[in-house]
Amino acid sequence: MATPSTSTEARSEIPEGICVLTYNPLNTEEIIRSVQDDGAGATAVFIGTTRNSFKGKVVTRLEYQAYSKLAIKTMTEIIRTAHSTVSRSAHHPASSSVPSLISCAVHHRLGSVPVGEPSIVIAVSSPHRKEAFVACEQILEEVKQKAQIWKREYYEGEKEEEAEWKANSGC
How far apart are CA 23 and CA 110, in angstroms? Predict the structure, then answer.
């Protein structure tokens, strides 16, 4: 199947972090390094991989497509929101100049993603672990609910043309 022209690679860099849509395999170490900072006491990372089964069926691969122009804007807004809404740790009073989050990175694969390979990597650096974990999960859930990205699951023994596109909201 030809990839629609709307499903293209995209990148957005803002002071709060970076969002990427790519057809290339995700380099988790590089993504983690992109959020490192000497002020970070914690880096939380989520790596979502293609698993080999779904509801008793054997999954052979996933395919992702996006309305990239809008999806990258949505992902960028999600990390902006995380920076403004994740509450500050009790270690620092609200008047402190220490931010609750330092940097966020969200990288999502497009195209075919074989079993065992990452389809999404989220990395969040923060002065403290609580904020890093909270923000990482918040970003993941919002990307899955709001970003204009769809997936197609291919199963062993089923015709490829019968695979259906689904909203990217499953685990």
Answer: 5
